[in-house]
Design goal:
alpha/beta; five-stranded mixed β-sheet
Length: 217
């Protein structure tokens, strides 16, 4: 295998981290007290050309944990009715045990040593995910405890805009505002945006790194 092909393996692209794109919909901004109501997780892979692409997405509607706060303004914003039986919601523990299992499986298949959350304004999603894992006593999770890849920051650098819909527009990714604020829709658009930025950087010559090559001059 050539050095270029070796650099393009997913295990080498992000220092052994396996990127996992996540979006959550919640009943407020406080991870300690407010319910997590929906989560989608998109797994990524490298294709045969060394391009980062979407692999598959996991999606769960979540039942509010016992005693969870439900802010009316948040529910009006995301349009979620936690009492609607047609949501097909599952409890947090069921969802997160499955998510952890599938992420670990994909991480191992890519020969990565740890997973890292990718999200738009990532501190918010990372906080709710971390708290839910803690609340349900799910140990040995694959996710880095504090590091993230924030596509809002990356989009500001690469595209000059931090709002997800606008950043997708500038990247040439179709975005339907009527579908926004669904975890499934937002996660997959965020995943496409992250892949676009990573692949664009590669196409501009920013990857692989050639800093260790010596000049013949």
């Amino acid at each position: 295998m050539s050095d270029i092909a070796e650099h393009n393996l997913l295990k080498n692209r992000f220092r052994g981290y396996f990127p996992v794109v996540i979006d959550v919909e919640t009943a407020g901004f406080n991870k300690e007290t407010d319910a997590l109501l929906e989560i989608a997780v998109t797994l990524l892979k490298m294709d045969e050309h060394g391009e980062l692409v979407l692999d598959r997405t996991l999606h769960y509607h979540i039942e509010p944990f016992e005693g969870a706060n439900l802010e009316p303004e948040a529910l009006a914003f995301n349009g979620i009715d936690p009492t609607n039986p047609l949501r097909g919601a599952v409890d947090e523990k069921t969802a997160f045990k499955e998510i952890v299992k599938e992420v670990k499986k994909a991480q191992k298949a890519s020969d990565c040593h740890r997973s890292i959350i990718v999200a738009h304004n990532a501190a918010f999603d990372h906080g709710f995910v971390t708290k839910a894992l803690e609340r349900n006593s799910i140990k040995r999770t694959p996710f880095h405890p504090f590091a993230t890849f924030d596509t809002a920051a990356l989009s500001g650098l690469a595209l000059g805009h931090t709002v997800l819909a606008k950043a997708c527009q500038f990247a040439g990714i179709p975005f339907d505002n009527k579908e926004a604020h669904s975890a499934l829709y937002d996660t997959e658009r965020t995943a496409e945006l992250f892949c676009h930025i990573v692949n664009k950087w590669k196409s501009l010559g920013g990857w692989p790194l050639l800093a260790n090559e010596t000049s013949e001059d």
